[in-house]
Design a protein that fits this description.
The chain is mainly alpha-helical and 87 residues long. 64% of the residues lie in helices and 0% in strands. The longest helix has 13 residues, at 60-72.
Length: 87
């Protein structure tokens, strides 16, 4: 696998912690593992969760149903608060 050298800047305290806790010869591998875990894979459009989110956004029936729920989200809260105070 080809590699590329990058220059990154970190806050001094974070750089100190990295140097104290990760041996010099293991820092590149450490950062590589973190990035692999944190970043979406190349071509993230193939990610099943991404595809599911797109389908939900494009589903007009579901969007209409969600809009109805938005209008009823606070229904009954006032009455419940009133009953709790006088109950």
């Amino acid at each position: 696998m080809a590699t590329e050298q990058l220059l990154i800047r970190l806050p001094e305290e974070l750089a100190r912690r990295l140097k104290r806790q990760v041996p010099a010869r293991g820092r590149s591998a450490f950062v590589q593992r973190l990035l692999e875990q944190a970043l979406a894979p190349e071509g993230g459009e193939d990610d099943p969760l991404y595809q599911a989110a797109l389908e939900v956004e494009q589903d007009e029936r579901l969007a209409a149903e969600m809009a109805e729920w938005d209008g009823t989200a606070a229904d009954g809260l006032e009455a419940g608060a009133h009953t709790a105070q006088h109950g």
